[in-house]
Specification:
By secondary structure, this protein is an alpha/beta fold. The chain folds into 2 domains: about 25-150 and about 240-280, Bacterial extracellular solute-binding protein, family 7 (D-Maltodextrin-Binding Protein, domain 2); about 155-240 and about 290-360, D-Maltodextrin-Binding Protein, domain 2 (3-Layer(aba) Sandwich). The protein is built from 13 helices and 11 strands. It starts with a helix and ends with a helix.
Length: about 350
């Protein structure tokens, strides 16, 4: 008799516990709307953001229910920042130099002309104070940012005429965002800011004369080889372009420590994954562009690169002079370039040059 009472009470307790647990679990569940600056299923940048969204939901075992919207599906690509800062969405997946009009200190967290390569950027963010500075500028706008990808070194761009001297850049209408666009303005070009989905049509129509995008893999899928004849290298404007997951800070602050760690882990995974995937595919698609589509590669000569370098120095100083925060960010970035860059002079750069000369790659 006592046993039956005990079992009945235990069963009632289990039911009661389940009834109490259900609302608790519902309360723990968080919605996360991610808006992106890239089109859906676009190889590399687009698919990376989609993969990150899936990974966050997977790692949190559904406690964070993620909805991902590509550019134009919820808001326009360049409206992503305001959508998140306002709290209408919880996160954007994009490149922070798009927000340099709000504060130029955002730009170094994507790329600086003549700046850091992917591995150097990663070193700065993790060990050179970069993440703390991203947190500092983000706090002023209600944003918590975490690196979640990198395109590596980008190509110099697609041009409808040869660039043999700095004079050839004057009056050129070129799609190029960020501080790279400021450099092009310094050398006499007219920079235009366009989201990726609008580049092809503008280049074909003649609304722009040239464009940069990313590299062979991504450029192939935009079919830029149909719209311009010459493909220039190396890009000076984005030597290691970092992608960020920028989250509404109030939403981030309301997460448990565990879920914060899991989102951070998902971003770290994707940061490495996107860089590796892009680097691997760029070689494959460069060969396709040359061998199957007859794309003509051109190298920027020393005169053109010197003009880029002089203009980049001016742009970096102007960015630094904007405010105390901009100065703090740029100084930290330049310290990383000097220190990690000095090591690069004796490591990756000379090794790759000698290896490729020996193997005739």
């Amino acid at each position: 008799m006592q046993r039956r009472k005990f079992l009945k009470a235990a069963a009632s307790g289990t039911v009661a516990s389940a009834a109490l647990a259900a609302p608790a679990l519902a309360q723990e569940r968080k919605d996360m709307v991610i808006v992106s600056t890239w089109g859906r299923d676009f190889p590399g940048l687009g698919t990376s953001g989609q993969r990150l969204a899936e990974r966050i939901e997977e790692l949190t075992e559904g406690r964070i229910a993620v909805q991902y919207f590509a550019a134009g599906e919820r808001v326009g690509a360049f409206d992503s920042f305001d959508e998140v800062a306002s709290g209408n969405a919880q996160a954007y997946c994009g490149t922070d130099y798009y927000w340099k009009g709000k504060h130029p200190g955002w730009a170094p967290f994507t790329a600086v002309p003549f700046g850091l390569t992917y591995t150097e950027m990663d070193a700065w963010m993790k060990f050179g104070g970069g993440q703390a500075l991203l947190d500092k500028i983000g706090a002023e706008f209600g944003i918590k940012g975490i690196p979640c990808g990198n395109t590596g070194l980008q190509m110099g761009g697609w041009f409808n005429k040869e660039i043999n001297s700095p004079e050839d850049l004057k009056g050129l209408k070129m799609r190029i965002p960020g501080l790279g666009g400021d450099v092009m303005a310094k050398v006499g070009a007219s920079p235009v800011s366009l989201p990726g989905g609008q580049i092809y049509e503008n280049l074909v129509s003649g609304a722009i004369d040239a464009t940069e995008w990313v590299g062979p893999w991504n450029d192939y899928f935009l079919k830029l080889y149909e719209a311009a004849k010459y493909y220039y290298w190396p890009g000076m404007h984005e030597p290691g372009s970092q992608v960020s997951l920028g989250m509404n800070k109030a939403w981030w602050d309301g997460l448990s420590d565990q879920d914060k760690r899991l989102i951070t882990v998902a971003c770290a995974e994707e940061n490495a994954m996107q860089a590796a995937e892009t680097n691997y595919n760029n070689g494959i698609y460069l060969n396709k562009l040359i061998n199957e589509y007859g794309v003509e590669l051109r190298e920027f000569n020393d005169d053109v690169y010197e003009a880029f370098g002089d203009a980049a120095t001016e742009v970096i100083e102007e960015t630094r002079d904007h405010s105390e925060l901009a100065k703090e960010i740029v100084d930290s970035f330049l310290d990383a370039r000097a220190n990690v860059g000095a090591w690069s002079n004796y490591s990756d750069a000379p090794y790759v040059a000698k290896r490729n000369r020996y193997l005739d790659i």
